[in-house]
Q: What sequence folds into this?
């Protein structure tokens, strides 16, 4: 099997030594070429070129941003030309990899991928897609309008100043924005489902392609626990942001069962093929932990059986 190994040298937990160990382990079993990303969006180009060059497998070593880029690169080619994909964790959260059930340690995850290659274990996952001025983008696990996108935006700003994107940094910024009122006071969002009346007056909206939405350290955060890679998209939206309601919603998100489908202060939609989220004015927007600017409208749809994954 001919494979391309794409790694992000700036990923939070990736080191030259760990990369060397993983490359040696993979190269002992498969014919492996390697590439380092050099700029934002480079993994998109590398993955697309790998598909066009006839590689059978693409492996990434990086965070969720690298996973998102590789997925978008692979989706740029016809399905029959698309290589199988394996993702190894090198970031701070690694939501996609952990949602697949792979170990969070990159060396252990490499062992699991090699075992899956030996046994022929594969799974097919759906992706989410958004329409936008840049022609649209795919996302692997989540998209967010409002508070979480504000958090991502601030983390990216601090990373440019030299901070590491650790779980502690995300948590500190999220709490700071919350206590400053960043989660409330702006019910400008609305969800528009086909053949249904719009639901307005929403403070924060989240779209998921799987569960969990994210991790707070080792703890999964589950606003849409029924969401699955094999189903359509789920949506969570806050309708109230008083302290007691928000605290109760967060408590349930952290529970083993996650947030129930119905409850006070929020709404959920399950297994949806397409819909639109709008804002009365531009709000921060993110996909897979990447800030995409402020937007007033995003159209979403589920893309079935998009990628074949080694897992």
A:
């Amino acid at each position: 099997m001919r494979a391309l190994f794409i790694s992000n040298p700036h990923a939070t937990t990736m080191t030259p030594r760990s990369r060397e160990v993983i490359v040696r382990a993979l190269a002992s079993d498969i014919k492996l070429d390697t590439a380092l990303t050099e700029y934002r969006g480079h993994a998109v180009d590398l993955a697309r070129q790998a598909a066009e060059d006839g590689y059978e497998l693409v492996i990434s070593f990086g965070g969720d941003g690298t996973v998102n880029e590789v997925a978008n690169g692979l989706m740029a080619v016809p399905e029959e030309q698309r290589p199988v994909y394996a993702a190894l964790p090198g970031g701070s959260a690694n939501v996609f990899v952990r949602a697949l059930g792979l170990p969070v340690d990159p060396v252990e995850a490499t062992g699991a991928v090699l075992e899956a290659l030996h046994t022929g274990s594969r799974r097919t996952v759906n992706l989410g897609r958004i329409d936008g001025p840049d022609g649209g983008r795919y996302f692997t696990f989540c998209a967010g309008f409002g508070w979480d996108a504000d958090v991502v935006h601030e983390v990216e700003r601090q990373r440019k100043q030299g901070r590491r994107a650790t779980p502690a940094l995300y948590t500190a910024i999220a709490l700071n924005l919350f206590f400053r009122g960043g989660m409330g006071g702006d019910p400008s969002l609305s969800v528009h489902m086909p053949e249904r009346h719009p639901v307005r007056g929403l403070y924060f909206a989240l779209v998921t392609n799987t569960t969990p939405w994210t991790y707070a350290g080792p703890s999964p955060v589950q606003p849409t626990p029924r969401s699955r890679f094999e189903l359509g998209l789920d949506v969570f939206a806050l309708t109230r942001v008083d302290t007691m309601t928000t605290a109760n919603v967060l408590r349930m998100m952290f529970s083993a069962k996650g947030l129930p489908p119905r409850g006070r202060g929020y709404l959920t939609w399950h297994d949806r093929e397409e819909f639109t989220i709008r804002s009365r004015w531009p709000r921060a927007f993110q996909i897979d932990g990447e800030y995409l600017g402020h937007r007033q409208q995003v159209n979403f749809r589920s893309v079935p059986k998009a990628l074949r994954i080694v897992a």
About this structure: The helical segments are 16-27, 42-52, 64-74, 95-99, 106-119, 147-160, 167-179, 243-253. The mean pLDDT is 93.
